[in-house]
Queue: 2 jobs
Job 1
Amino acid sequence: MRKMLLAALSRVLQGPAAAGRTAARVMVASRNYGDFASEATFEIKPCDLHRLEKGPGTTAVMTREEGLQYYKTMQTIRRMELKSDQLYKQKIIRGFCHLYDGQEACCVGIEAAINPTDHVITAYRAHGFTFTRGVSVREILAELTGRKGGCAKGKGGSMHMYTKNFYGGNGIVGAQVPLGAGVALACKYFGKNEICVALYGDGAANQGQIFETYNMAALWKLPCIFVCENNRYGMGTSVERAAASTDYYKRGYFIPGLRVDGMDILCVREAVKFAADYCRAGNGPLVMELQTYRYHGHSMSDPGISYRTREEIQEVRSKSDPITLLKDRMVNNNLASVEELKEIDVAVRKEIEEAAQFATTDPEPPLEELGHHIYFNEPPFEVRGPNQWIKYKSVS
Amino acid sequence: VTVRDALNQALDEELERDERVFLLGEEVAQYDGAYKISRGLWKKYGDKRVIDTPISEMGFAGIAVGAAMAGLRPVCEFMTFNFSMQAIDQVINSAAKTCYMSAGSIAVPIVFRGPNGASAGVAAQHSQCFAAWYGHCPGLKVVSPWSSEDAKGLLKASIRDDNPVVMLESELLYGVPFEMSEQAQSKDFVIPIGKAKVERPGTHVTLVAHSRPVGHCIEAAAVLSKEGVECEVINLRTIRPMDIETVEASVVKTNHLVTVEGGWPQFGVGAEICARIMEGPAFNYLDAPAVRVTGADVPMPYAKILEDNSIPQVKDIVFAVKKALNI
């Protein structure tokens, strides 16, 4: 009863008024955790469906623990990306750096809906997924700064980070989609009821190899969820200028599809749960479009305002920020207090600072290792350097 | 045993030996293979292990690479390597480079195989040799068998290798029978990748070739032998990593070098051999500049007289040897 009252309250209390009332409610100095609800039910937007009779439900239950974990994870990614921005401007990060801030609900929502034994592959905007799949902020930042403590020992950089059941981090637009279907083929082959989530952007959605992959995945009923993170722009080209049809969830044609609010972590989670169940049941692939937004430009060399207005960016920030949405939900439904979330913010900032400290002080990989890892499981051999007298040893 | 049957045996044995090995490509299953290399395998192993793909090279090559990353051991057939150009991004950027980019945490144990280079009357778009293109890239292994033993041993070694291997076969060799030793009949017969073989010992000149031209070199050696010139014929077997040491040791002995290949001259396998010989100890033993015999520097024509003169013939090799020896 109390839960439903609170849920009803949350629908009524929207916007700044809620913050004021929330602040008033927590004027009591110390708050017992027993005062919080253990969970709450939320209404979520229904998904647009393609070739599906039923989609994910329109309510989602979130426990306090889940909410705190989602919040902390999204905030960590947010601050990690902002720190990367800083480090890039200081020229400590070089080359390509494609930031994910704004899109946090996608990677965190996906991870919340799948198992660690499932598989994920994405393109180059990969730092968020690298984190949710289990790599520490330390190792991510150190990889960005090209140090030996990086998750790829400084060999890969921003676009080539990997971990167990996470296949990167791929630089060639669209190439990761067939790879993901191949991982799904292995899942089916091994018969352990695992699935693969293969992500791509609205720009990549026009790649021919994706359509080849749709065909084979459907033909062979591969347990693959194709997820299009539609952030409205492929580099500087808006979706209207790139695609004859911007209904990316329908592009799989004979493959059923869902269009999901990618700024709402619960929407994402419920949709991916639905899709994962579908795939695990042996029905074959699904296409999912997550409508999301990136605050940064395409990469650090793109200010991101020549093809979209500052007003648009600001509007998304104020009305649809995924972290703010989650925070409001939690506070308005008595799942957490503002102070508690602030404490998490402080802890996250500290973690990021420490990780950045490591990433800027850890040494670069030793030059002697330049030739390492050309092959796997191979006896050592010699690799030629810039001339015939410079030789590097290659060890697997 | 023909090269075709040797390859078939290798596939059969490796499919049986390791459950993670599977074959995919156009027409490999129910058609028994476009060139019948996979004859009988679908019947024996079924849909899970032998998979017919639609005509989607980029897609199925990517799927094969992804499957390899996730722990399977795919053999991905390109009906000819000409079609691999559609998928070359997956071969190079997804397969070859991943072990390095991931600092050794992701292995890609895949074999890309199929016929390469000239055939008979198939014209320009179906006759290109890709040895130089694939041989260029670190992270790949590239093998090019000539005999049935080569084919069987190298295919088995490639499948057992934990790295991406490109195996360049020759359609014109598929039907050619070769002697197979007792040893080669064994189920564990593998030929080490990265080791060349001296097919015919000689003293006056070193002939280095890969794939079908090895046979032409042996024929040329027979012709030259009658004139008192003894050629040492080296079958490279592997393009990358190239066994230059075997070539060097031979040049130190014979003082003369002729390279023979089916591909185009510019930036070819022969060019690489010459450059490496120059850089190494064998240079001081050369009594004359190295000579290259290659495919003609033209897209492959159709008419027989034109095609015949666009690939290295025995007479071209004999002529080159005589030039090198100044006789």
Job 2
Amino acid sequence: MEAAAAAAAAAAAAAAAAGGGCGSGPPPLLLSEGEQQCYSELFARCAGAAGGGAGSGPPEAARVAPGTATAAAGPVADLFRASQLPAETLHQITELCGAKRVGYFGATQFYIALKLIAAAQSGLPVRRESIKCELPLPRFMMSKNDGEIRFGNPAELHGTKVQIPYLTTEKNSFKRMDDEDKQQETQSPTMSPLASPPSSPPHYQRVPLSHGYSKLRSSAEQIHPAPYEARQPLVQPEGSSSGGPGTKPLRHQASLIRSFSVERELQDNSSYPDEPWRITEEQREYYVNQFRSLQPDPSSFISGSVAKNFFTKSKLSIPELSYIWELSDADCDGALTLPEFCAAFHLIVARKNGYPLPEGLPPTLQPEYLQAAFPKPKWDCQLFDSYSESLPANQQPRDLNRMETSVKDMADLPVPTQDVTSDDKQALKSTINEALSKDVSEDPATSKDSNSLKARPRSRSYSSTSIEEAMKRGEDPPTPPPRPQKTHSRASSLDLNKVFQPSVPATKSGLLPPPPALPPRPCPSQSEQVSEAELLPQLSRAPSQAAEGSPAKKDVPYSQPPSKPIRRKFRPENQATENQEPSTASSGPASAATMKPHPTVQKQSSKQKKAIQTAIRKNKEANAVLARLNSELQQQLKEVHQERIALENQLEQLRPVTVL
Amino acid sequence: MAVCIAVIAKENYPLYIRSTPTENELKFHYMVHTSLDVVDEKISAMGKALVDQRELYLGLLYPTEDYKVYGYVTNSKVKFVMVVDSSNTALRDNEIRSMFRKLHNSYTDVMCNPFYNPGDRIQSSGSVSLSRAFDNMVTSMMIQVC
């Protein structure tokens, strides 16, 4: 009976709401201006969270017709619970407003429910007659209510509408890449009663409320452990690939939080003209983490195939992805550096949110701009390498806090959560500290924890080798043998370079055949010596070796035929070094470095003498060759001269004829 | 300024062909098709020597009354064929060479895109083209017909 009456009231109210009734007129549901605004805003939030622009700002609430816009059960339940009414009362209210009957929360149902909540909070019995009374606005402990909250902020709401799809689609596209996210999304409806409370604080916490604030915090803190536990068993079944269960929900939440704070950042940037193309700090962090999951070294690049697999997961069409690649790969090298990757990622995210792709790369996405604006990556890399608790680490706990507080897919409105974070920090410190060590070392947003863990030591070795290489380069110049000989590109003189190399590496702790552009070390050169059989073949081989000339093969051109006795003497050492060389090449430069120097150090002096002698011999041979060549060319020159003279004579003979 | 530009794959099927719209496109398609024989002939003539020594630019493949057809082969046996108007005498050899070089560079850029599968058509239509840069470059080389 009550339900029927409520249904009738609902129907009548529906007419009122559809007509944009401001509370005047016959319909039983009387809403004052303030109430109307408040309710419509709340409804918009709940509806907006349900999946993208179902409602609009308060001015357009009147357009919301019942049935076309529904508030999702999750945020609505969330909101109701925030009203601090007992569950039974809430049940009654839900029944009364007709949502149970129709199965969803339309505008009318929602408005009636809100009115009933207000009634209940005022102490009135929950009856349909209550809605006829003049009541104060319903109080939601975690909500910005009391009417003073920014109703007149359509820009914000519009911004939120933009961000909500942003958030949801971004999450949909990329969280799906993480296994647990998939489950999270599927399970979120069932988990919403548990999960929504943590999200509510940030949702409704726009204004630092005095009265509700402490309650908010306490309720938030109480609620937090519950969803974690609830999540963990749900997440567990799938969590094979990622790290421990404790980290998984946190990581997922981190990713959610990240996108959530991204949403907030987007709102902050809404004033900028090129807002969709500007990468915010949070987004940048997220992209960098994703980059690191694919490629541990932030200063290196991602190959095309790897990037292709990664971006294909975003479910955009191939032509679009190809176009995005065209835009973002500025140097057209088939690989993405970090700024290029960020630009591409950002374009994909924007596209998924419905932004049309630009004709050209926007200025804020240019690689130079990105590198200038966000010089972080290298810094982050070092920090991660050192596992230090510096600024990004500090940001991490902040992110974790935010993550733990907000979390939800249906983000209603981005809320400045900094107020919450500082407070929640203490509350959640224990969980944070557990997760922090893992999260600092791992990328919160990725599911490939094992990969990233492995990647850490790899990145360390990368950075260490680069440092060593830099050192080596710095130390290269001062070598005893005269460098200028390197300029000789002739076959025979190339031997000299190789011969002189032995002294060079002696000083350096050999990074053996390190990545390109480093002069060859003595050990490789010696091994080269071993590999060659004879003088003459070496000479002839040298040109072909020189022709190969790739930096990796720098050792090759340095053929040398040291005199046979010398070679024989070097052979055992060279063999030793040669044996070492392949092993070092395989094991990596860092480890190779240590092995190499030992055998070579002792033989340096004698080798140097031999090297000098052979160098002298090579020089002489080169001189001979060049001299021969020179004479031949001189011959040719003379012949050509003679021909020219003959031709000129002919011309002279012919000319007087024509003149006449 | 070319009248028709075509990119032909190694297996002699067209990857991209574009001609000035006013003319009968079928005629150009036929000319490009017949020019493939000449290209093959030129390639095989130098085939005995090392590939390195073969020059990429093939030069004038064959002249007709109204048109001249130039050819260019890459190291991966992808052929570019360009048809120019015979009346356009101002076009010199090195200009043709530079046009082919630009074509080659744009083609390499298309190749660099991991989303492009070698052997696919270089789409020049559609809302989001697969190779907008390539298209724009070709457009700049074609005769501007209003």
